[in-house]
Design brief:
single chain, three-stranded antiparallel β-sheet, 2 helices, globular, DUF2442 domain-containing protein, NE0471-like_N
């Protein structure tokens, strides 16, 4: 089963996500769905604090959680819209 093995922040807003299969994902948090207001707190920050992972999601203490499945789905939607 695919898991997140590491997550860091680069350039203040981009998640650097390493997966268990060796692939890396660079995910710009400014591209989170604007229709989901649970991510407004991330969009409002100039520099994101370092997140944690439990293998299936990325999360911030007392903040939002991004599931790996959602991240992969958003990347697919973004690719199809470009």
């Amino acid at each position: 089963m695919l898991q997140i093995t590491r997550v860091d922040i680069i350039d203040g807003q981009t998640l650097d996500i390493e997966l268990s299969n060796g692939h890396l994902i660079l995910f710009d948090t400014q591209r989170l769905p604007e229709t989901d207001h649970s991510y407004d707190s991330l969009r409002d920050l100039e520099v994101l604090p370092r997140p944690s992972t439990d293998g299936q999601s990325i999360f911030w203490r007392d903040g939002p959680r991004l599931a790996l499945g959602d991240i992969l789905r958003w990347l697919t939607v973004q690719k199809n819209n470009e």
